[in-house]
Specification:
about 250 residues, 9-stranded antiparallel sheet, alpha+beta, about 30% helix
């Protein structure tokens, strides 16, 4: 008697309200003992094995990614150093009459300039997170002005980076500089009389606000230690420069 026939026989007896005789019961038990059922698949040990294998693979990827910069490609955040694969190196002009030795000496004292095809690639290439304002006082989109790797002989780690973005619409324009190292820059005066004040941004971050007849700028450092300067140029005074700069800065506070 095969499995199906045994199954049908049991249901037939139960359906008629009959009970098995001792002879029928003995025969069914003998059939069950002699029948070889396939063993049940042991899923739990296999799931544990696959889980351990997956955890090992993720650990290996994590170790390799932290050493090679693979993690940003896997959604693991910013690279540890500037990812130049997402950028294009700007051509340096004015070196035509220099010897190779002079070129090497000159370039050793200059930052390496890059540009990007998109703001998205530029932000992904930076060795620090940066959030650009999305709400602007006028209708415009940010573009990449440039990224500099200050690769002087003493700084070759790809971390002394500055990035510049701009947005413009007619007479008004916004310029944003972000720097991840201490930079000593002497800015010249544009001849306009300026006022200066300390203001408090979101999350208790302090900003240095300067206003003049053509617009103004605000300087602050975010929680990641990135120095940010936002310039707003509005010679027609169509906007309240103080409010515009404060709002733009608060959008960049992480």
């Amino acid at each position: 008697m095969n499995n199906k026939r045994m199954h049908d026989a049991i249901h037939h007896h139960l359906g008629e309200g009959r009970t098995f005789s001792k002879e029928e019961e003995a025969a069914l038990l003998a059939k069950l003992e002699n029948n070889h059922f396939p063993p049940k698949r042991k899923w739990f040990p296999e799931l544990v094995s696959w889980s351990l294998a997956g955890a090992t693979l993720l650990l290996v990827i994590g170790v390799i990614g932290s050493q090679t910069g693979l993690l940003p490609l896997l959604g693991g955040g910013q690279p540890e150093r500037l990812d130049s694969t997402l950028l294009k190196e700007s051509e340096v002009h004015g070196l035509e009459n220099m010897s190779e030795e002079q070129k090497e000496e000159f370039l050793g004292r200059q930052p390496k300039d890059y540009y990007a095809d998109s703001v998205k690639n530029a932000l992904k290439a930076l060795p620090f997170p940066l959030t650009l304002p999305e709400k602007l006082p006028f209708d415009a989109k940010f573009v990449v002005e440039g990224i500099k790797d200050w690769h002087f002989p003493s700084n070759t780690d790809g971390k002394d980076i500055s990035a510049t973005f701009s947005a413009a619409n007619g007479q008004q324009s916004i310029l944003i500089d972000a720097v991840d190292f201490e930079q000593n820059v002497v800015e010249g005066s544009n001849g306009a009389e300026a006022s200066s004040e300390e203001i408090e941004l979101k999350k208790g971050i302090e900003g240095d606000l300067k206003l003049d007849s053509n617009g103004g700028k605000i300087t602050f450092e975010n929680k990641n230690g990135i120095k940010i300067k936002i310039y707003f140029y509005d010679p027609q005074k169509d906007y309240n420069t103080r409010d515009v700069l404060t709002d733009l800065a608060n959008q960049m506070v992480d």
